[in-house]
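Example 499.
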Amino acid sequence: MDFSIKAFNTKNAIAEHKTGCVVVGVYENSKLSAQAKLLDSKGVVSTALKTGDITGKPGSTLLLHAAAGQAKRVLLVGLGPEAGMSDRNFISVAQAVARVLSSLGAADALVALPIDLIQGRDAQWGIRSLVLALRESVYRSDGLKSKKDDATNGVKRVVIGVDGSLQSQARTTLLQSVAMANGLDLSKTLGNLPPNICTPTYLANTAKQLAKEYKLNVEVLDRKQLEALKMGSFLSVTQGSEQPPKFIVLKHMGGKAKDAPVVLVGKGITFDTGGISLKPGSGMDEMKYDMCGAGSVLGTFRAIAEMQLKLNVIGVIPTCENMPSGRATRPGDIVTSMSGQTIEILNTDAEGRLILCDALTYVERFKPAAVVDIATLTGACVTALGHHNTGLFTRHDQAHDALANELITAGKASNDTAWRMPIEDAYQEQLKSNFADIANIGGPPGGSITAACFLERFTRKYTWAHLDIAGTAWKSGAAKGATGRPVPLLTTFLIERAK
Ligand code: BES
Ligand code: MN
Ligand code: ZN
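Predicted structure in complex with zinc ion:
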């Protein structure tokens, strides 16, 4: 899908734009939006409203097979009440438009909606929401089906109409939105790939490909190098697997050479059986999504590289499988992490923290401005926050409150929200071990918090935040698949940091 911006003013009217379909909004009280009025010189829109076929309810649509101005068809979309269009309403508007356009016989469309009248949001936000909704509607996960899902005709070229005054900023926003959509796509596609294809080696090759395409620096460490680094905790997780582990380091150095980088660390378990603490069989296929932290780091790199973001960002991905075997780690095993802290592995299914802790020690060498790890870490986080919010954890001091607020704000701005959870000493006590420095589980109460507390012990040399995306990275049920989250949050966070 190809996007462009077109500015309209009095000389250059919406009605004069030649297109297969023009999309305009109508309000709930049968009132026309400003753009709809401009199309209505022959009464095409107002006549349709009089029939009562469209109520103006947010997201309702009516396709008119009548020409208006230079457009062959008109798609009316309900905007809701005229006073104060909410952002939620606008998202349902964008999704409804996307749904109709993706099956239309026209090849191109002009979308002329009041994107500058969304309450509490700017036109930039409106453009990004439109692009993401349109791209979402054409995303397919049929790459491995021999008979592809119905290929609809669908609009291929979308022109977003904006007011002349918004033109130059709108173009930048469009570039960034398309880059973000490309990053989301990559993240979704990696998440949806089966675990026999999306192996640690596959993720490493994806990183190498990105590096080649966008001239990024990439390094992939193998088992020998991980042994030399004394990553005993990470290596304990890979022990039962035939697939070799990889440790990916990807660098986008768009900032000044001396600027401290932001480091993103993504959990890359390409399949989580639980290991010897084997998971129940039902639904175990979904544990292919246990690399979505890694996928979101790669997706975010795709986005920031494409938009040539002026910021130093380093992505670090520890990736392996968690499998049972005669060589696998046993519950009760004690391993030594790269930090020197010894860990009693009481449950081999709490493996995410075991690979992340060594990565979090490794990144000290970058003297980071901030480190954010992203992980499908705990089922407990899904219980706590459901599928709406990513769990956000940091220490509670001034520097960390500031980082937490940056991430929360980026989440709100990009419709990819996070909710802050506590890290406190009282929870740390649940990680006591009789035989090692720390146990890898803290019992059922507050499971997502004790997991974050475990990671916290490896992050004391820098400012750090942890995102638990177990509830937000994918959907179960009929719409099963990866969501690409939190690529929008991370990309927006980095765009703001680059300002
Ligand atoms: N990858 C899982 C977390 C997970 C579970 C993500 C369900 C999405 C849905 C993680 O490795 C795991 O197994 N965590 C355990 C921790 C427990 C053993 C302390 C969990 O959440 O049950
Ligand atoms: Mn697990
Ligand atoms: Zn896991």
